[in-house]
Amino acid sequence: MASSLRLLLGQIRRPASAAKQTARCVSRAASQPEPSAEQNEAVNPTFVNRNPRNLEQLALAVKDRGWKTIWPRREFYHRLEFSRTQHHVTAHVFSSSSTVPVLSCSTKEWALKKELASTNCVAACQAVGEVLAQRCQQAGITRMVYRAIPWTYRSDAVQSFRTAIKGGGITLSEPRRKYVDT
User: Fold this and answer.
1) Distance CA 46, CA 148 (A)
2) Is the predicted pLDDT of residue 21 greater than 60, yes or no?
């Protein structure tokens, strides 16, 4: 009975030489082949860019120039559009390749509407700016073009929206496109 109990509990006697060795002494690391400099510099001929915005962030991507007479100009990667109506404040971020907004924020959203006393005041513009800046950061958009309509630019609402966007870490200008000689 005692021998079966020792067997069940795993207390089998081992020789003295095996008891002194630990698992660390017994195990050895597998030998790794030494990398050569030629392998580090080799480029896969079927390379696929898995980050399509990489060229955009390096300012190497092509910007659609559009016509010289078009206002607002179409030379951008992302454009911020801010509008204020009689009842609500909305802001959209558009990509140069799409007419559908990439990101948007409005006081029509219930989460924003329930926190505000009024949906078209200066505080509402600031709240929309803060929320949109946070959404842009989460989406990885940190630079965009914002050109306000000249006669509305000096209003307190537009200024509070701009400061909220800038306070959220968004730069309201894009780098000039770099031209690489090929």
Assistant:
1) 44
2) no
- Phi, psi torsion values for 151, nearest 5 degrees: -80, -10
Q: How far is CA 60 from CA 43, 144, 179, in A?
A: 21, 15, 7
Q: What is the pTM of this model?
A: 0.66
